[in-house]
Amino acid sequence: MRTKTGRYSGYIRPFSFLIDFIIINVFAAYIADFPVEQLVFPTVLSIAWFSIAAQLGFYEVYRYTKVIAILNCAFKQGCLFAVVTFALAFFYAKQTSFQTIGLFIFISFSLILGVKFSIYFFLRKYRVLFGGNFRRVILIGKSMNVAPLQHFFTENLDYGYQLIQIFELEKEKEAKINQMYSFVMDNKIDEIYCSMSDLTQNQMSDIIDFADNNLKTLKFIPDEKQMFFRNFTFEYYDYIPVISLREIRLDENFNKNIKRIFDILFSCIIIIGILSWLVPILGILIKLETKGPIFFKQKRNGLNNKEFDCYKFRSMEINELADLHQVSKNDARVTKIGKIIRKTSIDELPQFFNVLFGEMSVVGPRPHMVSHTQKYALRINKFMVRHFIKPGITGLAQTRGFRGEVESDNDIINRVKYDIFYLENWSILLDIKIILNTIYNTLKGDKKAY
Predict the structure, then answer these.
(1) Which ranges does the record mark as transmembrane (predicted)?
(2) Sheet holding 191-195: strands in order across?
(3) Which helix (H) or strand (E) covers residue 22, if one does?
(4) Which residues, 6 or more positions from 321, have their beta carbon under 8 angstroms from its beta carbon?
(5) Which of 14, 68, 169, 177 lies 20 to 30 Å (CA to CA) from residue 265?
């Protein structure tokens, strides 16, 4: 079901359209000195802005929309608008310099983005301080399945959800569902959240009919397994509807090329700026302590489950179990210098060569050794989905505490959950956020880095 438009959107969005229209055309006249007196120029410029915005969903900002999602959309909006502006300037304003055009784009877009975030954060504060712009919601399902969302609603008032009632389906499901119907109508409830795993197909169909017939927003809470594969995409082959299991953002050539360019630039910076002098120093230290190579090479599974050689600084003594057993806490195989480079994650830096060679990415699901991939593929549902994209030196799961040794199935289940979220919601800004979080966690010290 399509998300219901916010009750204030009918006022805020037209206001945003008008403000943006004024900013673009005023700055076009007074900064870039574009020929706005020629009606065609401001008309084409405005149409270009709003056409790009409509395509990207620049104005589709909801109370649950994350800041990084807004920034990601804004980045694309700014880039495409810049291309159109330079093209227009080339044909209609040849006397205007590139520097002036760039200044116009930067100032006007910065001001538009500033207004956008001012409205966004004002509404969040308004909900908390004045209790306005709230959605009245209810939860229906077993207590353990609705508890995370219950916690979210009660702890994040700035999102603007007011939890009115919880209908627990521990027993007497039909009676509770009927009671819910009456409660929703009597108490002017806006949104209904149902736990999918606690309802039969017929019960879900009845609740959908009720919501549609009474103009109520209905949303379903998947369980842990359902969460892995509910990012359906709906397509038409001629007039035939087809549902695709998931949308992988990096399947799009534009996104793939952007990520590859970022990987090459970032890996070159690390290789030239750090590894060029770090390799000889660590090489001497590693050789002085134990015999063996400086680098450790291990077969791991990458894109489409293809095996590749993953490089690391050698942190252990040469042993026959290196390709079978993960390092555990206080592992006797780890050398003295190995403890230091593992604690600081320096041992992972040679993988930037893997990135440069195209076998890995800076950010992505962490690759596992071949023996572990084979084991987890049999035991963990959806484990192989993470191989739809290139593996990474760091990943979303690692920044959320699921790095290093797998101590229980729960560790790998959560790792897979975050990896699948990443491949379905990738953006270059998300990559940058993960990199910054990784640096912060490394400097702070990660208890699972051993």
Answers:
(1) 12-32, 38-62, 74-93, 99-123, 264-286
(2) 161-168, 135-141, 191-195, 217-221
(3) helix 9-30
(4) 333
(5) 68
Q: Tell me the per-residue pLDDT of 323-364, one tens digit each, with 9 for 90 and over.
A: 666 676 777 788 888 888 888 888 899 999 999 999 999 999
Q: Is the pTM of this model over 0.70?
A: no
Tell me the CA end-to-end span of the chain in Å, nearest whole number. 46
Q: Residue holding tokens 């983005």? A: 113
Residue 285: per-residue pLDDT = 92
* Highest mean predicted confidence (pLDDT) among 17-21, 306-310, 399-403: 306-310
φ/ψ of residue 307, rounded to 5:
-80, 145
Backbone torsions φ then ψ of 264, nearest 5 degrees: -65, -45
Residue the block writes with tokens 């521990």: 170
CA distance 323 to 108: 55
CA distance 330 to 382: 31
Domains annotated on the chain, with CATH: 9-130 (no CATH), 135-223 (3.40.50.1980), 251-444 (no CATH)
Give the model's pLDDT for residue 36: 52
- Tell which residue, 222, 195, 147, has the closest CA to residue 420: 222
pLDDT at position 3 is: 42
SS (H, E, C) 293-316: CCEEEEEEECHHHCEEEEEEECCE
State pLDDT tens for residues 196-231.
888 888 888 888 888 878 878 888 887 655 544 455
Measured distance CA(162)–CA(156) in Å, rounded: 10
Which one-letter DSSP state was computed for residue 334? B
Extract the tokens encoding 13: 């969005």
DSSP assignment of 350-370: THHHHHHHTS-EEESPPP-BH
CA distance 64 to 191: 14
Amino acid residing at 324: L
For strands 307-313 and 295-301, give the pairing.
antiparallel
Strands 135-141 and 191-195: parallel
Q: In one letter, which amino acid is 31? A: I
What is the spatial distance between Cα 50 and Cα 290, in angstroms, rounded to a whole number?
A: 64
